[in-house]
Design goal:
3 helices; mainly alpha; rod-shaped
């Protein structure tokens, strides 16, 4: 069985997310949050909440692709019926 690696972020994305978490706590809750606390919270969300968001994105992509595949029928060309001259 292959174990899922979960949702991974680049180092730049992690750094930006940590800063956003710290900014949120400062702005909305007037609390200073350390880098470590913000990283642990980010890891918690990625591990526990991330799969819900990821799965919804997969469903949305599936719906979008299905709709576009249905649109492909609009590209069909009309077919002219050939009549049998003997009838």
């Amino acid at each position: 069985m292959v174990k899922s690696r979960g949702i991974e972020l680049t180092q730049e994305q992690r750094k930006a997310a940590v800063e956003q978490i710290k900014s949120y706590f400062l702005t909305e809750k007037e609390e200073m949050v350390s880098d470590l606390a913000a990283m642990l919270l980010l890891d918690f969300f990625l591990e526990n909440i991330g799969p819900y968001i990821y799965n919804q994105a997969i469903k949305d992509a599936h719906y979008f692709i299905t709709q576009k595949l249905e649109d492909i029928y609009a590209l069909e060309k009309p077919v002219r019926q050939i009549t049998d001259p003997s009838s």
